[in-house]
Amino acid sequence: MRWLSFPATTAVIVIALASFFDAAQAGPAPAVAVSPQYDTTHVLVAPEDFDRFTDSLIATFGGSKSQQGVIQVTPTPSQTISQLVFTPVGTVSVFGFKTPVPYPFGVERTGYLVTDIDVAVKSAKEHGADVVVSTFPDVAGRDAIIEWPGGVHMQLYWHTKAPNYAPLQTVPENRVYVSQQRAERFVRGFVEFSRGKVVSDDSRAPGIEIGRPGETYRRIRIESNFGRIAVLVTDGHLPYPYGRELMGYEVANLSETLNKATAAGVSVLVPQYSAGDREAAILQFPGGYVAEIHTASSH
């Protein structure tokens, strides 16, 4: 038997065509997003840090807390303290596991409320996501965890009784670091799945935003009914704490917010700096949660 061989360029064309036909077959994504206030950042802290962390969030941003409880939020046995923190700049879902955390929980950065969990999971798969935790029931509804190209993990959730959270004053920015090799696939897949749009794609964004002043990098900003995502395309040569921050929170007055944060025991990892269209800083809250905060630049 004689094996047929094809030039490398032919193989590339075949792969590209396959991707094209897969996307075409998927068709327009169903509208499953609800609203940005239901985009909850998942934060795991030690039980002994739980109240200090939630108190520091409220002291920094304002807001309120849901009732605290101890529940099982995974499909296999576990117990965690659970509480929502509602701030005007974003909702945080806090977990303080009293048992070891079952794999792979803790890798998901956000929980996105969807109108139909089965439709949402099917659509995510059709648009390039992998389902790393299949749909399972919890105390409030049903959940699944998906992974996008580039290693971006998200939880999709649906509640039996629709929640009702107040609209946000400002929509937080999910800060996603991806490689140059996976950026296009992540952006294309997520934009199609979320029915969102790319609002900017800057190939020469200021490197100070990723701790590399004097350099440039590519930054893509996406908006959808799930909220905002900043896709930070890098070579992975990142000084601490860049890449550790999950969210960027927009505040009205950066200096005032920094003063409130430090008074509440929050550490300033990166002092206030100017970058393009914003003034920004990076904080670490009690319990270890790292976040960027920013305000629109006045110049």
Report on the architecture of this protein:
With 299 residues, this protein is α+β, with helices and mostly antiparallel strands. 21% of the residues lie in helices and 39% in strands. It contains five helices and 17 strands. 38% of the residues are buried. It has helices at residues 8-26, 50-61, 117-126, 183-194, 254-263, and strands spanning 39-44, 64-65, 69-71, 80-87, 90-97, 110-113, 130-137, 141-148, 152-159, 173-179, 197-206, 216-224, 227-234, 247-250, 267-275, 278-284, 290-296. A hairpin with a 2-residue loop joins strand 4 and strand 5. The protein has two domains: 36-159, Roll (2,3-Dihydroxybiphenyl 1,2-Dioxygenase, domain 1), CATH 3.10.180.10; 173-296, 2,3-Dihydroxybiphenyl 1,2-Dioxygenase, domain 1, CATH 3.10.180.
Calculate Rg over CA atoms.
20 Å
Number of helices: 5
Q: Indicate the overall shape.
A: globular
What's the name of the CATH homologous superfamily of the largest domain?
Answer: 2,3-Dihydroxybiphenyl 1,2-Dioxygenase, domain 1
Measured by DSSP, the beta-strand proportion falls in 35-45%
**Could you name the CATH class of the largest domain?**
Alpha Beta
**Mean pLDDT, nearest integer?**
92
What is the helix fraction of residues, given as a range? Answer: 10-25%
- The low-confidence runs, each spanning 5 or more residues with pLDDT under 50, are 1-24
**The CATH topology of the largest domain:** 2,3-Dihydroxybiphenyl 1,2-Dioxygenase, domain 1
Please give the largest β-sheet: 9 strands, mixed
Q: Quote the distance from N terminus to C terminus.
A: 71 Å
Count of beta strands: 17
Count structural domains.
2
